[in-house]
């Protein structure tokens, strides 16, 4: 009886792993295709088999994608746009996260009239599709003199990100022990003292979640980048699109694959480094501790 | 250290009035306990004193200085919270010096203060630990240490022992009392536990529904409760409250408990009855503490303040130190605290002595003590 049960259990195990393995392969397949083809000479890809390993390995497509490929009309490769994306992402993530923390602090620790309404309004911004704000935002950037600059993109992404970051921090701080804040106030901490010395140092999980979320979204964001930037300020996503769509006659698939992978590397790095915190952060508050 | 005066404090949230015209004053070095059931407004009152909530009306004075409008940080008042509220990102030493850092006390003095507080509370070996590495009792000590470090004028304790297990709670209670005696600090302490209130306080304010029911020494509150609520709330077991009829002539009044005037349920009162004479011929509520009732011993003389009654034993509850007997007196149950070795059995009829010096009466309409 016991043996029978354990055998059934073993079979279930095998089935479970088989399914998981199959799904993992399914997810990894596009990555595999991208990587192997980015190391092939173009002839081999034209030859037909996307799945096979490269016959002759070459890093030329990567070098080309990085520094010499035709982006629009310039043969600059992705490098300057990679830099643009960094100059965009770092301040946009930092500013939107800090504003989110500040908003969350104010919305939860100060009971003021209309707090719930204000939060609902900010939450609403999360559900507004990007396209709706394009024209008003273009107008705003024009008035601010930020049109076509990386700073302008930082502004747009910060504004658009505040809804999310506020949501994250507000919910985290709503569950934050109120007595800690009261105690800090009695001990003499002021408005920013409480935020900087008590709330933020105890917010690691939600800061990590917010940073990953914002980093991934802004790094991968295309529509605002395409709409509000010019040749000098394209983020990487737009440059990648231009790389793929540059009509110089032949489609260099191997370069495209390499370029796409270059564009994906930073978000992968962020996930690998902090993925466990991400999961932990999403669970934060569900259990004590 | 300072004297604290609350003058006509009122607090409302919208249309709900939480505190009704509260006026209490304590002298420097007193230990005031606010006690009452949950929702009685005691924590709100503490928050008003701490400056965390603003009163709707009235003022808070510390040594005569009106501090009602001061922000909490400028009142020089320290608070120990129920959850300890230790900052999880800081070590014990950092926690203790936090209020000093916030008040820009210089580094050498801070270190000195942390050292002396840690020594006083015997937590020197814990200074480099984080709060999560401490046990409940240790956290409690650190929380008290943080309150001490500032050398405040007033200490506030908000149910500080509620999160501790039973044994530790007793130990910490003694610790807090020792600390009070050593520092001579003015302390305001909130609890729902009437035993904590009795053991710690030099003065107790019993609250219910946002109103101070009685403000007095533990002795007064216990022995002469201002109304039936206080009588029922303070003490364990609670004071026995029974409807009784007062009859007789002036100077020779007697209470009859239960319906008929059976002789065993009649308690003659001493001649000096004060306000009771006005209740001749009327119903009152008689209040008798469990320890004011004792078993008649063979051959022992009945004292001048003692009256014999006859009652039937309903339940015997030995507690070790003494035995509680639930008795039936004319259809009303009441509890007596008897010797631990009592041989009484349930169902048995027996004679008991009531100490009339410890008997109090309440007005059945107003529920107030008849003085």
Rg of chain A over CA atoms, rounded to whole Å, is: 24 Å
By CATH, the superfamily of the largest domain in chain A comes out as MetI-like
- In the CATH hierarchy, the architecture of the largest domain in chain B is 3-Layer(aba) Sandwich
User: What's the name of the CATH homologous superfamily of the largest domain in chain B?
Assistant: P-loop containing nucleotide triphosphate hydrolases
Most extensive chain interface and residues per partner? A-B, 17 and 22 residues
CATH hierarchy: architecture of the largest domain in chain A: Orthogonal Bundle
Q: Using the coordinates above, name the CATH class of the largest domain in chain A.
A: Mainly Alpha
Q: Mind describing the biggest β-sheet of chain A?
A: none
Low-confidence region ranges of chain B: none
Range of strand content of chain B: 25-35%
Indicate how many domains the architecture of chain B comprises: 2
Strand fraction band of chain A?
under 5%
CATH domain class of the largest domain in chain B: Alpha Beta
Classify the oligomer. Answer: heterodimer
Sequence stretches where pLDDT stays below 50 over 5 or more residues of chain A: 285-289
CATH topology of the largest domain in chain A: MetI-like fold
Structure description:
The complex is a heterodimer of chains A (289) and B (371). In chain A, 75% of the residues lie in helices and 0% in strands. Chain A is flat, with a radius of gyration of 24 Å. Chain A is built from 13 helices and no strands. With 289 residues, chain A is an all-alpha fold. Chain A folds into 2 domains: 2-62; 79-283, MetI-like fold, CATH 1.10.3720.10. Chain B has 371 residues and is an alpha+beta fold. In chain B, 23% of the residues lie in helices and 34% in strands. Chain B has 8 helices and 20 strands. Chain B has a 6-stranded mixed sheet, with helices on both faces. Chain B has a 5-stranded antiparallel sheet with strand order 13-12-11-14-20. In chain B, α2 (92-102) runs parallel beside α4 (136-149). The relative contact order of chain B is 0.12. The model of chain B has no long low-confidence stretch (mean pLDDT 90). Classes of the chains: A mainly alpha (289), B alpha+beta (371). At the A-B interface, α8 and α9 of A face β6 and α2 of B.
